[in-house]
UniProtKB/TrEMBL annotation:
Keywords: Chaperone. This is Probable 26S proteasome regulatory subunit p27. InterPro entries: Nas2_N, PDZ_6, PDZ_sf, PSMD9. Residues 1-18 have a biased composition (Polar residues). PANTHER family: 26S PROTEASOME NON-ATPASE REGULATORY SUBUNIT 9. One of its GO terms (biological process) is proteasome regulatory particle assembly. GO terms for cellular component: cytoplasm; nucleus. Residues 31-107 form the Nas2 N-terminal domain. Residues 1-23 are annotated as: Disordered. SUPFAM superfamilies: PDZ domain-like. Residues 150-205 form the PDZ domain. It comes from Aspergillus leporis. Belongs to the proteasome subunit p27 family.
Length: 237
């Protein structure tokens, strides 16, 4: 048995963002988004491996008398957990830079074009900072790229009644957008939390060579006669 079985077997410190010598402030928004997506994909894969072992991040790896469990690979699980913790920290750092980029973008718009904005000053309380970040993400969805595409729509479903069509590209789904959708997991979470409530879905629709921007009202519900709350299938872009 490994004498250090209770100790993670990976080195500490960032790995996904290129190490401490990489200056994230010099990356473009596109580069940051690609890194964000890559980290989320890796987190999803590692979480699936943990699940395959029948454990999660909080499952005890020792018996009641504090011996390593012999029904699981304790060393591998601790290594996976250490990687997940590092990836989560890297993800937070990427998100911090994305939020700063959005803030700078809107500040530039205000200075150069006089565009009104509801973004508040982030120099206040913690609550004000949280609300401000939420405003950045909400406003960014209107200017950011689509993050998902409609792959199918069932007839007479909530999605069909809202006007969603095959091929529509989603720019925002309620409060979820290109910054915070986390491989569409946040869309599913939002839908579950808002059954029977109206969600505004902003889509881009191609009609020949023209693109039309639409705001659709979608009400998730179960009683429409089919599976799920929406009756449509979305795929990430």
């Amino acid at each position: 048995m490994d004498d250090n079985i209770h100790t993670p077997t990976v080195a500490s410190g960032p790995t996904t963002t290129g190490g401490p010598d990489r200056d994230l402030t010099k990356l473009t928004m596109v580069d940051l988004m690609q890194e964000k997506e890559r980290i989320e994909e890796e987190l999803s894969a590692l979480s699936s491996v943990l699940t395959s072992h029948g454990v999660n991040m909080n499952t005890s790896l020792t018996t009641f008398d504090d011996f390593p469990r012999d029904d699981i690979d304790v060393a591998q699980i601790r290594t996976l957990r250490a990687k997940i913790i590092r990836l989560r920290n890297d993800h937070k750092e990427i998100m911090r830079h994305l939020e700063k980029g959005i803030h700078d973008h809107f500040s530039n718009l205000q200075r150069t074009q006089g565009v009104p904005s509801s973004i508040s000053n982030t120099n206040g309380s913690t609550g004000a900072q949280t609300n401000s970040v939420g405003n950045y993400l909400s406003d960014a969805a209107m200017l950011g790229p689509p993050f998902a595409k409609v792959n199918s729509v069932a007839v007479a479903s909530p999605a069909d009644q809202a006007g969603l069509k095959l091929g529509d590209r989603i720019r925002s789904f309620g409060s979820v957008n290109w910054i915070n959708h986390e491989r569409l997991s946040k869309v599913a979470e939002l839908v579950q939390q808002n059954e029977g409530r109206t969600l505004i879905v902003k889509v881009t629709r191609q009609d020949g060579g023209n693109a039309t921007e639409l705001d659709l009202e979608l009400v998730p519900r179960r009683d429409w006669g089919g599976r799920g709350l929406l009756g449509c299938h979305l795929v990430p872009l």
